[in-house]
Design a protein that fits this description.
This protein is α/β, with parallel strands linked by helices. The chain has six helices and six strands; from the N terminus they run βαβαβαβαβαβα. It has a single domain (2-163), classed as Rossmann fold (3-Layer(aba) Sandwich), CATH 3.40.50.
Length: 164
């Protein structure tokens, strides 16, 4: 059970995840988290570097899908701004439901999908439970996330330590 809290790979930022790495792992689609993976809290769109990296991944042949625990309006608006057509809102990560729906939307098997996020107990655990490659990134911004997320960040430290 504890193995589900350890990511398959760890990168500082999403921009460090290369097409070569994904191809080596036979990945065809990418599930993306929004908050603190692509943008900080209270930021409407990613910076230009992240937008360019998303286009690089698409041009390399990867399908992109945002899977978020956020509400429909926030996720749809965000995806329109970054030009990503597949998305799942109210995903209830770490439940498998959002990952299942994303795989169906992208018409891929879950072992062909990498899920990238910044939290162990939602993004990594959810990806592992669903059978996707779990990629953990450092959060873009710490602080301002609220008590519950701050507590989770403290509890996830033992699962991140092996990557540092």
């Amino acid at each position: 059970m504890l193995k589900n809290f350890y990511a398959d790979a760890y990168f500082n930022r999403i921009t460090d995840v290369t097409a070569e790495f994904l191809n080596e792992n036979k990945i065809k689609g990418i599930i993306l988290d929004i908050d603190n993976t692509l943008i900080g809290h209270d930021v409407p769109i990613p910076d230009e570097t992240i937008l360019l990296h998303l286009r690089y991944l698409e041009n390399a042949g990867f399908k992109l899908c945002v899977v978020s625990n956020n509400r429909y309006e926030r996720v749809k608006s965000f995806c329109n701004k970054i030009d990503v057509k597949y998305f799942v809102y109210d995903a209830l990560k770490p439940r498998k439901m959002g990952y299942d729906f994303a795989a169906k939307e992208m018409q891929l098997q879950k072992n062909e999908i990498a899920a990238i996020g910044d939290q162990v107990f939602t993004d990594v655990w959810g990806a592992k439970r669903a059978g996707c490659l779990a990629i953990l990134t450092k959060p873009l911004h710490k602080g301002g996330e609220g008590f519950f997320i701050a507590l989770k960040r403290l509890l996830e430290k033992p699962f991140i330590k092996p990557y540092k």
